[in-house]
Amino acid sequence: MYLYGLDDSEVGSADSYTSRPSDSDVSLEEDREALRKEAERQALAQLEKAKTKPVAFAVRTNVGYNPSPSDDVPVQGLAISFEPKDFLHIKEKYNNDWWIGRLVKEGCEVGFIPSPVKLESLRVQQEQRMRQNRLSSSKSGGNSSSSLGDVVTGTRRPTPPATGNLDMTNLAYDVDTYDIDAEEVDPNNRSPKTSVNSVTTPQSNAKRMPFFKKTEHVPPYDVVPSMRPFILVGPSLKGYEVTDMMQKALFDFLKHRFEGRISITRVTADISLAKRSVLNNPSKHTIIERSSTRSSLAEVQSEIERIFELARTLQLVALDADTINHPAQLAKTSLAPIIVYIKIASPKVLQRLIKSRGKSQAKHLNVQMVAADKLAQCPPEMFDVILDENQLEDACEHLADYLEAYWKATHPPSSNPPNPLLNRTMATAALAASPAPVSNLQVQVLTSLRRNLDYWGILEGHDEAEDQAKEEEHAL
């Protein structure tokens, strides 16, 4: 060491000097930090402005997402997490990877939502990590199934979906029971969403079935109306007095309870034909036109567009749909409706109601009872609200409580005043809603109110409905 004219202390100081970052490196790091803070400040400002902007559109999620620090969120901690089948209000586009919006849930504020491009990027990254882990595990002697289980356990919590990544089960393989025909799905091949190993089974099935069924790509989001329209079904078939009068009693209550916040519109076209697969595939239009005698596809498309336009006002939208008698009819459409089921639990009570309307209704007793039985066989998950109360007032309050909660979820305190489109849209919707004038419909409802209450009175088992009908008629 002394041959070079340096002692040990001098060598140590030289080493420490060479390991010390240069001034240019320090300044570069400072510049990056300053740019990051400036970008974050601008993102926060844009986020704050978006709170008072109207909803541009709404989507229903087909995947689950939980943010992580590695996702490059414009402002850390302000990304929105969501589960499959949640609803999101989108305010505006921030960039190609992120939107600004909110989860439709009371108490949720605006934040950053990954765009379909970002979600696809995350899906590809997660698949690559899983593939690499399987490969490294197979080289080390472990079997691929156990290595995949380790990967899933390490990167995802069973519930909620993994911190930092996509719920791969729902994104790539999970198919909603009501979104595909029963003959297209083997229930033994579907694995539960909450199972940690649920990713492995669909992968093996997908490899085994290339000759029989083309793998269907499930988009991360489906565009839906900004306000989910609600539809009444039951207790039996529409077009018959018992069902029509009971539903009109509810519509009349809602019209007064939510005055200024609700649009009740009649739909005569068969909107069950508005399946996403049909509207997005022109080759299927001819088949539908041939098989349908009630509504043309152009009429159906026009009705769907009108419903979307009504929902843009962020008012409650009630559809008096002539052709909808079962929730499965709308399961494949883009309407994502709130299905309200008026349920009469006892078939004997329903028979009494139908027979009480005279021979003209009693001769169609069987078809009405079959329709009621089909509704009764549906699992409760197919309905959003089930009105099984014996008293009209209780049923009305049950439905009103649900709609009030939905109103609060879609109208956070920080949102803007009512949409400026409201006046124009409500005016045009009132003209297009029904062939009959609105005033005639009101008169019809008022004159039938006593009979409506008598129907519910039979369910109550006493005569209080008659007195209530007289009071309601006097008040109205």
Summarize the structure.
This protein has 476 residues and is α/β, with parallel strands linked by helices. It has helices at 8-19, 23-50, 116-139, 144-155, 168-173, 200-208, 241-257, 276-279, 285-291, 297-311, 347-355, 359-362, 365-377, 392-410, 422-432, 438-460, 464-475; strands spanning 57-61, 87-93, 98-103, 111-114, 221-224, 230-233, 262-267, 316-321, 338-342, 385-387.
Count the beta strands: 10
Shape: elongated
Order of helices and strands: HHEEEEHHHHEEHEHHHEEHHHEHHHH
Counting helices, strands and paired strands, the structural category is alpha/beta
The level of helicity is: 40-55%
What does the radius of gyration come to? 29 Å
The number of helical runs is: 17
Mean pLDDT across the residues is 76
pLDDT < 50 runs, ≥5 residues:
144-163, 168-207, 209-213, 425-450
Strand content: 5-15%
The termini sit apart by 108 Å
> What can be said about the biggest beta sheet?
5 strands, antiparallel
Give a verbal description of the structure.
This protein is an alpha/beta fold and 476 residues long. It has 17 helices and ten strands. The chain has a five-stranded antiparallel β-sheet with strand order 4-3-2-1-5. A five-stranded parallel β-sheet has the order 7-8-6-9-10, with helices on both faces. Helix 3 crosses helix 4. The longest helix is centred in the first third of the chain and has 28 residues. It is elongated.
